[in-house]
Design brief:
The complex is a heterodimer of chains A (429) and B (315). Chain A is of the alpha/beta class and 429 residues long. Chain A contains 18 helices and twelve strands. Chain B is flat, with a radius of gyration of 26 Å. Classes of the chains: A alpha/beta (429), B mainly alpha (315).
């Protein structure tokens, strides 16, 4: 009996310890974790093609939604069970932590091999999203730590038929034009603008587009460093954009709690004339309403002399697990995936902008229009530094409060500055 | 066989103070070891780790910095957190009153011999088995405040217009005055079926002879309800109340489904704040401190309620 008990105990402990360890992948197989439900079929097809060509099996594992994916990757890093290829859908500071902990391979040598052929083939903006320059604030060794498999940007999309119905012959060139168009649309009972302001990143994106136009990048970075307060008149002017738009009834009813999926549905079903959305929405609009006639443009500028910046760059990027035994195979697969034939296929299947600029000429007209704005693309991932997340939350929630008429721009500016001052004092401590 | 009147005396021998030999104790321990190990690995260890993390500053990856009780100290002064707690309390209050009163009333109705009793039971149990996401999508459509071609898209606003009260059309989920109440009502709508089933099961265990005897003594319906139904139902009511509090205080999927990341801070509840600290701000230590405090409050509330109901039963 004693022996049986001892053996049972050993068996249980052995089972428990073996069950917790990382599974070793076969040498001719690479594992990819991704979050892109809309690209699963296309990626599966490409994985099959890659296996045919090279004999290396690519195992794709989908985790969705993206929030769940982010947590999964964080947990896997802690447990030391990251796959060969994965994505980090998190803030720049977290990407830097992954790199500093040695989970992410520096791909700069691979990009620069063969005279830099791989790097040259890809969109500069998209590569920049994955680049850490020398002496970056995160203290990460300079390098390129990710491979963009597509690019995206967020702009103002307009419905040609609804604009025509309101007597608008061309999309607005300036902010004043936009306000006139809003009035014209309201007169004929059309909701002017829809977007997912229930999701904080879209509020942030919309606001930072105007912040770049009104303040310019150096002043924004100075604000992040704490050298310019949010109560500065130019920041108040950014908040006033929302007050003006809300006052003119530019926003669709219920915009502050609307998720982007519902916003995309509203635009596809022609419930609003403008939508502030990303290039990925092209696929959604086409699938929901194949007859939708729409065009794209950056948000109309308040200071027309300054080009309007748009959020954009790498749409989806993959990184290679620096601790993987299959690192070289993983890099080879990503290089193959971003080569022209695969990029043409991915773009055609998913209506996303290709990261390989050699195939840009072959994309549809609407995707081509999205691509035009890439030269003015910017993104928090390429900024010198990012704002404290609590300040961003207060900023975005404050904008919601302005839209619903609960707070004035000046009051929101003071609230944001108070949180900023508190966070800076905490960091100093 | 242990006889009640003989205490630890079995077959004429006194076993008080009996301890099995160490060998037997070890063998007995081996039998429960798997259960203990599973409990330790999946319950005790995560809780200890949660508490440990709450004493650190940690972005989710990389080294942790020990900060002692600073996270708890900050939490005490976090106005958004405590207002979120208040919002959850409001949702719970609506659930405890509106939801459970409705559940009790319907359970009483279905406990009697009425036509289509089984059908009603089935219908009342549909909302709780639906996923919160599905309920959110459904109510998003009902409460939608948008228009198309001058027509209200939302079912409720459309109904209001059709019945001749266009002035009452409202932005239900985007107005701070109504958003939280709408969430509370939808939560109550989804949850009343659980209370209904449990209360109905409790009602059916009450011996009918008690009512017959009371009727013979001339008791009326209200008197029987107060003196038989309620006292006999106290254990079930306690269970329903505790489950309602635990379920309502932890509501969050429904909120994400109805108002996404929230209407300013008016629809924040503790779990959405924990999520915001974790995935929005990468403050895992602070999120763990929030979870610890929240857990302590819920456990304290459950024990307090149990003590109150025990007193009520004794009274």
């Amino acid at each position: 009996m004693k022996k049986i008990g001892f053996l049972a105990c050993c068996a249980f402990l052995a089972f428990a310890s073996f069950g917790c360890g990382p599974a070793k992948a076969p040498a001719n197989e690479i594992e990819v974790w991704h979050w892109m439900t809309d690209r699963q079929d296309a990626l599966e097809a490409l994985a099959g093609k890659y296996e045919q060509q090279t004999g290396i099996k690519v195992k794709l594992v989908l985790f969705a939604p993206s929030d769940a994916y982010t947590q999964k990757v964080l947990a896997a890093a802690q447990a030391g069970v990251l796959p060969d290829i994965f994505g980090i859908l998190d803030k720049r500071a977290i990407v830097a932590s992954f790199i500093k902990e040695g989970y992410v391979m520096d791909l700069a040598p691979a990009f620069r091999a063969d005279g830099g052929a791989w790097e040259k083939s890809l969109s500069v903006k998209a590569v920049d999203n994955n680049r850490f320059t020398a002496s970056n604030v995160y203290q990460v060794p300079a390098g390129i730590y990710g491979v963009p498999i597509d690019v995206s940007n967020v702009q103002l999309i307009y419905n040609r038929a609804l604009l025509k119905k309101a007597g608008i012959v061309r999309p607005p060139a300036t902010f004043e034009d936009l306000l006139k168009d809003v009035d014209a649309l309201r007169r004929v009972g059309i909701s002017p603008l829809v977007t997912g302001f229930g999701e904080m990143w879209i509020v942030d994106c919309f606001a930072s587009n105007y912040a770049f136009n009104i303040l310019g990048e150096p002043k924004i970075m100075a604000t992040f460093r704490g050298e310019v307060p949010y109560t500065d008149p130019e920041w108040v002017a950014v908040f006033n954009v929302f007050k003006t738009l809300a006052g003119r009834k530019a926003f669709i009813e219920g915009i502050v709690t609307k998720g982007n999926k519902y916003a995309e549905q509203d635009f596809a079903l022609e419930r609003a004339a403008f939508s502030f959305d990303g290039s990925w929405a092209v696929n959604i609009y086409k699938s929901m309403n194949p007859n939708l006639d729409f065009g794209v443009m950056p948000l109309p500028a308040i200071k027309p002399a300054t080009p309007m910046r748009v959020w954009g760059g790498a749409g989806s990027s993959f990184v290679v697990n620096n601790r993987s035994a299959n690192r070289d195979k993983a890099v080879a697969f990503l290089r193959w995936l971003t080569a022209a034939p695969q990029q043409v296929y991915l773009s055609a299947q998913t209506n996303n902008l290709p990261s390989n600029c050699e195939v840009n000429a072959g994309v549809s007209r609407i995707l081509g229009d999205f691509l035009k704005a890439m030269e003015n693309a910017t993104h928090p991932a390429v900024w010198e530094l990012n704002e404290d997340p609590l300040v961003i939350e207060t900023f975005d929630k404050g904008i919601q409060a302005i839209i619903i008429g609960e707070k004035e721009p000046e009051q929101v500016a003071r609230d944001v500055q108070a949180v900023k001052a508190r966070q800076m004092a905490r960091q100093k401590k | 066989m242990i006889r009640p009147d003989t205490g630890n005396v079995i077959m004429g021998q006194n076993f008080s103070g009996y301890r099995p030999p160490a060998r037997d104790a070890f063998r007995n321990f081996l039998f429960v070891l798997p259960a203990v190990a599973i409990f330790a690995v999946f319950y005790i260890y995560p809780f200890c780790e949660l508490f440990n993390l709450s004493l650190h500053q940690w972005p989710g990856i990389g080294p942790k910095t020990f900060v002692g009780l600073r996270n708890f100290q900050e939490l005490l002064g976090d106005k958004v957190w405590w207002s979120a707690m208040g919002h959850a309390g409001y949702i719970t209050l609506i659930a405890l009153t509106f939801q459970n009163a409705l559940a009790f009333a319907l359970a009483l109705a279905c406990d009697r011999e009425i036509r289509l009793k089984r059908f009603y039971r089935l219908v009342f149990f549909i909302p709780p088995v639906l996923s919160e996401i599905v309920v959110g999508i459904l109510w998003n459509w009902i409460l939608n405040s948008g228009t198309q071609g001058g027509q209200q898209i939302g079912l409720l606003n459309n109904f209001i217009v059709q019945t001749g009260f266009p002035n009452l059309v409202h932005n239900w989920l985007s107005d701070p005055a109504t958003a939280l109440t709408c969430i509370a009502v939808v939560h109550a709508w989804k949850g009343f079926g659980w209370g209904f089933i449990m209360l109905l099961a409790g009602l059916q265990t009450i011996d009918r002879q008690l009512y017959d005897a009371a009727k013979v003594d001339g008791a009326g319906g209200w008197s029987m309800f107060c003196n038989i139904t309620i006292p006999m139902m106290i254990p079930v009511i306690l269970l329903v109340v505790i489950l309602t509090i635990l379920g309502s205080m932890q509501v969050f999927v429904l909120i994400l489904s109805l108002v996404n990341q929230g209407l300013v801070y008016h629809t924040e509840v503790p779990v959405t704040r924990i999520l915001a600290s974790m995935s929005g701000m990468n403050q895992f230590g602070y999120a763990c401190a929030q979870a610890v405090i929240f857990g302590v409050i819920l456990v304290a509330a459950s024990f307090t309620l149990k003590a109150i109901f025990n007193r009520l039963r004794q009274a």
